[in-house]
Design brief:
The structure is a single chain. The protein is α+β, with helices and mostly antiparallel strands and about 200 residues long. It folds into two domains: about 45 residues, no CATH class; about 140 residues, Transferase(Phosphotransferase) domain 1 (Transferase(Phosphotransferase), domain 1, Orthogonal Bundle), CATH 1.10.510.10. Helices cover about 40% and strands about 20% of the residues. Strand 1 and strand 2 form a beta hairpin. Helix 5 packs across helix 6. The N and C termini lie far apart (about 35 Å). It binds adenosine-5'-triphosphate (ATP) and magnesium ion. Magnesium ion binds next to loops.
């Protein structure tokens, strides 16, 4: 069930109706990672977070820094990596990744759907959101910059990456259906997507 959200003078407050979602968010915020908001307090079903000054990163496609985003996500994955799987952001839709107002950092928010899975599951799903915003040439360049930066910190398995593209497409389309939108027809073409974001 959807959490209740409100903004206080200096904080972002979130009250949950699902204890599993609360547990997942707390699991991340207790690590005090540089790419997340700070946990100000937690009690009952509520968490209070520092108020981030930023905007969903694809709202301003002209200020897009794929390398910085790759590095940020790699650092997040690295913080919960067992050598094969890691804690994945999972609901990595563009509203849950903010570009800071001064354009120097990306922040991840909303860990209610956190999953322990292969990093390739998180990465390929995130890239699918780029398809509606960029042309093919941009996509291939941005994907390359993103992956190059990511792999400076974290490994990517090529075979697993390609296996996860169709799985992520299915998850992406299911999410659209859950939100009452039609599946993205372009996205049903797995071979085309492999061409864009394949390794
Ligand atoms: N600490 C924060 N500071 C500023 N803005 C935030 C913060 N956390 C989240 N937001 C913004 O508020 C939005 C909603 O928060 P969140 O994603 O945690 O809740 P949600 O239950 O998924 O809500 P929604 O379904 O509306 O996305 C985020 O997409 C983000 O833009
Ligand atoms: Mg959200």
């Amino acid at each position: 069930m959807k959490a209740e959200l409100w903004i206080g003078e200096d904080r972002f407050c979130k009250r949950f109706f699902d204890s599993d979602e609360l547990k997942k968010e707390l699991q991340v915020y207790q690590k005090q990672l540089p790419m997340t908001a700070r946990l100000i307090s937690a009690g009952g079903m509520q968490i209070d977070l520092s108020l981030l000054q930023g905007r969903p990163y694809l709202d301003t496609p002209l200020s897009f820094f794929p390398g910085l985003l790759g590095r940020t996500l790699a650092a997040f994955h690295q913080s919960g990596f067992d050598g094969s799987k890691c804690w994945c952001h999972w609901d990595n839709n563009p509203k849950n990744i903010l570009l800071s107002e001064d354009l120097t950092a990306y922040y991840l928010v909303d860990f209610a759907q956190l999953e322990f899975d292969f990093p390739e599951a998180d990465l390929t799903h995130l890239l699918l959101f780029w398809i509606q915003h960029f042309n093919d040439e941009q996509l291939r360049l941005f994907t390359k910059l993103f992956i190059n930066a990511y792999t400076l910190l974290m490994p990517i398995d090529k075979e697993r990456w390609n296996q996860h593209i169709p799985l992520s497409i299915r998850r992406f389309n299911q999410r659209r259906i859950d939100f009452g939108k039609a599946p993205d027809l372009l996205l049903n073409n797995t071979r085309y997507i492999q061409h864009l974001i394949g390794l």
